[in-house]
Amino acid sequence: MGYGLAPTLRGFRLRFAMHVILVVSLLTSCWQPSAVSDPAPTVQWWKGNLHTHSLWSDGDDYPEQVVHWYKSRGYHFLAISDHNVLHEGDRFMDTSTRGGGEVLAAYKERFPDWVMEKEEGGAHLVQLRTLEEYRPLFEEPGAFLLFSGEEISDRFDGKPIHVNATNIVELIGAQGGDSVRDVMQNNVDAVLEQRERTGQLMFPHINHPNFGWAIKVEDLIALKGEKFFEVYNGHPQVHNEGDDARPSTARMWDIALAERLSAGLPIMYGLTVDDAHFYYDFDGEHANPGRGWVMVRAAELATDAIIRALEAGEFYGSSGVTLDDVQLSSDTLSLVIQEENDIDYVTQFIGTRRGYDRTTEEIHAEDASVLFRYSETIGEVLATVEGALPSYTFRGDELYVRAKVVSSKLKNNPYKKGEYESAWVQPVVIDP
Ligand SMILES: [Zn+2]
Ligand SMILES: [Zn+2]
């Protein structure tokens, strides 16, 4: 029995082969020291957040302050994704509404001789600086990178349908459609169309499916051309955990993976994001930064390298747990968890086996919407392993295997009270 492996593993193999070639060339050239001075770039983990807000839409701080928040806390990349707007063109903030008082004072203190203010019609206005303008203040090769971003914010029948677009060139805006699924697809298609037309790498991702209970798992299953959705979003109103009738986002992930993979459709990866709006009041009522991020494994901190790594599943999501390594061999998925003193780790390897029970039960939510309950043979816990070096050997009948690490450390300023720091390892597809 052989395992056909996801692109992820092919990437590992390719790099492994490159390392072997490098080692061989080092050995054969050891009598010529000058020949060994140019090693291949090594891959490393880059920390980033793809979903956050500023005063350009409904965030409560200036974009430079938002970028400073992340860069000064060890993030390597950031996309500020405001609602239906890019950070471009002339835009002024009337400080009598937002962005005045202590917010403006702090902005001016950190960025002296930078803030553009004017009085007009009795109002005190502050210019929102463009990404092109503020990018040079922060970007550093190998240290920090900014992406353009837009949270395309659409709706259908009163339900909010949001799709993030990362590294786009032109504003997209809400595309509309005839159903929830149609609206999702039209917005995803608009990003893919721009990618095709401009030749710039960019990608859509589905935001917070349970926000407003807008997106059902069947919509995720049916979506074409989409590789990502948010399995964890730090906004307190997004219902990551579902409710009595509706599945959690993690459960939606398993159902979507099982149904998509068994139908020959592509894998879907789970992103972990902040969706921060509030940078002054930190508590469970506010969407604050620092709740969820991704760690991407790539050879360099560059837009194309990060996007290609994300699209290859070369990343994990985190709300606090750090992994030193995610290792995939032909038959085993292993993690190396970076241990903290006096903290315990429990890893669940989760998957769905081929031939799972595909019967569904029709149920009704309290708003009378019809939902389908899927079999418990979807998203089985295949193994539970304690310690810093969890490993799972594939039985061979799994459609996919993913891993979730939960630590014994309570998260600081959590999305929900009692939340423990966790990590979400991307699914690996196992071909029969
Ligand atoms: Zn949103
Ligand atoms: Zn948002």
How would you describe this protein?
The chain has 432 residues and is of the alpha+beta class. It has 2 domains: 4-91 and 128-431, TIM Barrel, CATH 3.20.20.140; 92-127, no CATH class. It is built from 8 helices and 24 strands. Strands 1, 2, 3, 8, 14, 15, 18, 21, 23 and 24 form a 10-stranded mixed sheet that branches. Strand 9 and strand 10 form a beta hairpin. Helix 2 (63-71) packs parallel to helix 4. The longest helix is centred in the N-terminal third of the chain and has 22 residues, at 7-28. It is globular, with a radius of gyration of 23 Å. The N and C termini lie close together (7 Å). Mean pLDDT is 92; it is low at 1-35. It binds zinc ion (2 copies). Residues 51, 53, 151, 275 line the site of one zinc ion (ZN). One zinc ion binds at residues 151, 162, 207-208.
Question: What would the keywords be for this entry?
Answer:
432 residues; alpha+beta; TIM Barrel; 4-stranded mixed β-sheet; 8 helices; binds zinc ion
Describe how the helices and strands are arranged.
Layout: E1 4-5, H1 7-28, E2 44-49, H2 63-71, E3 77-79, E4 82-83, E5 92-94, H3 101-110, E6 117-120, E7 123-127, H4 131-138, E8 145-147, E9 149-156, E10 159-166, H5 180-198, E11 203-206, H6 217-222, E12 228-233, H7 249-262, E13 269-273, E14 293-298, H8 303-311, E15 315-318, E16 323-328, E17 332-337, E18 345-353, E19 360-364, E20 370-374, E21 380-386, E22 391-393, E23 398-410, E24 420-431
Parallel strand pairs: 2-3, 3-8, 4-9, 12-13
Antiparallel strand pairs: 1-24, 2-14, 5-7, 6-7, 9-10, 10-11, 14-15, 15-24, 16-17, 17-22, 18-21, 18-23, 19-20, 23-24
Helix pairs in contact: 2-4
